[in-house]
Specification:
Layout (H helix, E strand, L loop, with lengths): L3 H7 L24 H7 L10 H10 L5 H10 L2 H18 L25 H8 L8 E3 L5 E3 L4 H13 L14 H9 L9
Antiparallel strand pairs: 1-2
């Protein structure tokens, strides 16, 4: 499987028109960047169900500006999340401007579940259905991790179930699911921090 940078350089296979929504290669694997770029922008982590690597890959090459890309986001994301992703992407692209290359070699990939269990598009619709707003619904806790910041128990339940159903790790029989007491405690801590984004 090839990464997007390899595909764009070696195969010269960027989207040939604004109607294409698929990347030329896989957006994940491993990335490195100039320290200043990472310090200014960080990694896009507000797609809390995944696909932050896709947002970053699109932004590196300016593909986030294609109307078809915006249409794709609109089909699976809430308006506040689209606005947040596009705002971050515009700033990121201003620094990177397609200056991306690749290094050849094998990559060791830790297995983290079957692709079929990840539901790449459907997972974002959980957020869209709840009108997820990364500036209101999550905030950074004292450990530097995202936590819930709004009282949306249905959203919290659906995402908890989504991640439990991914069956990652050693196998479903070895995964320890949190007790009801832990879940209740986590939900009672919502709104305990101010939005800081």
């Amino acid at each position: 499987m090839r990464g997007i940078a390899y595909a764009l350089v070696q195969e010269k296979a960027p989207p040939s028109s604004e109607s294409q929504t698929e990347l030329a290669g896989h957006p994940g694997f491993a990335w490195t960047a100039r320290r200043g770029v990472v310090e200014r922008h960080g990694f896009y982590d507000r797609f809390i169900v995944g696909s932050g690597d896709r947002v970053m890959s699109l932004a590196m090459y300016g593909y986030h500006e294609f109307p078809s890309m915006r249409d794709l986001l609109a089909s699976v994301c809430s308006e506040p999340q689209i606005a947040d992703a596009l705002n971050w992407s515009t700033s990121f692209y201003a620094d990177v401007q397609g200056s991306v290359f690749y290094v050849e070699g094998p990559i060791f990939h830790l297995w983290h579940g079957r692709s079929a269990d990840r539901h790449y598009l459907e997972r974002h619709k959980i957020l869209r259905d709840a009108n997820f707003d990364p500036h209101a619904d999550i905030c950074i806790d004292s450990n530097g991790c995202w936590k819930w910041n709004s009282p949306k128990p249905e959203l919290h339940r659906r995402l908890r179930e989504y991640f439990e159903d991914r069956n990652e790790g050693p196998g479903p029989s070895k995964i320890q699911k949190p007790s009801r007491q832990v879940k209740d405690s986590a939900e009672s801590n919502v709104n305990s921090c101010a939005a800081s984004m």
